[in-house]
Amino acid sequence: MSENMGGKVALALVRPHRYRAVYQIMLRDEPIGEIELDHIAWRSGEAELKISIHEEELHNHGYGTKAVVALLDQAFSKMSLNRVYLRVHANNSIAIRCYEKAGFRKEGRLSRLTEWDTLEEIFLMGITKTQFLNNAQKESQAV
Ligand SMILES: CC(C)(COP(=O)(O)OP(=O)(O)OC[C@H]1O[C@@H](n2cnc3c(N)ncnc32)[C@H](O)[C@@H]1OP(=O)(O)O)[C@@H](O)C(=O)NCCC(=O)NCCS
Q1: I need a surface site. Which of 5, 36, 48, 51 has the fewest CB within 10 A?
Q2: How far is the CA of 102 from the centre of ligand 1 (A)?
């Protein structure tokens, strides 16, 4: 179980670009990591999510999930995107759990060759605008 420290996270846009939007993850006015939408495809309404919280001691406190949900709200409500996807190593259990809590579903699994000729397993995960809005509605009804 992640230890919820109760702190609210906010996103601050630092590098706006037509095909990439990078935000700092702010906790009590301090940047603790970065989250971004990359490869924004305006025509198909899709983008790839990437996230990192810098300090390991700040992992597992719920901040990642809060940042992902805030970015999905931005992507679907303000940027009118239709689908957000990501790639994650199959052994990154904390990241996978974080994404699942935010509503992502596993869509596929692939193996790719590393530069050391070993195989690594990657999950493709995704969430649509409809899924995100349905989840938000269920949560507001449960309160
Ligand atoms: C991935 C990352 C953004 C997640 O953010 P976070 O704030 O640490 O995640 P959260 O606390 O919101 O959620 C973590 C969940 O994983 C669970 N978890 C922790 N260790 C786990 C493990 N070994 N196996 C399964 N679940 C685990 C936690 O219990 C929590 O779930 P819960 O709330 O149901 O208990 C952050 O850990 C990070 O920046 N990691 C390094 C960079 C990285 O891996 N980026 C992703 C690349 S795809």
Answers
A1: 5
A2: 11
Question: How much is the pTM?
Answer: 0.95
pLDDT in tens, 36-48: 999 999 999 999 9
| Long-range contacts of the stretch 46-51 (C-beta < 8 A, 24+) | 46/81, 46/82, 46/83, 46/84, 46/85, 47/75, 47/81, 47/84, 47/85, 48/84, 48/85, 48/86, 48/87, 49/84, 49/85, 49/86, 50/86, 51/25, 51/95
Q: Which two tokens stand for residue 122?
A: 């990657």
Interval between CA 86 and ligand 1 midpoint (Å): 15
Topology of domain 3-142, per CATH? Aminopeptidase (3.40.630)
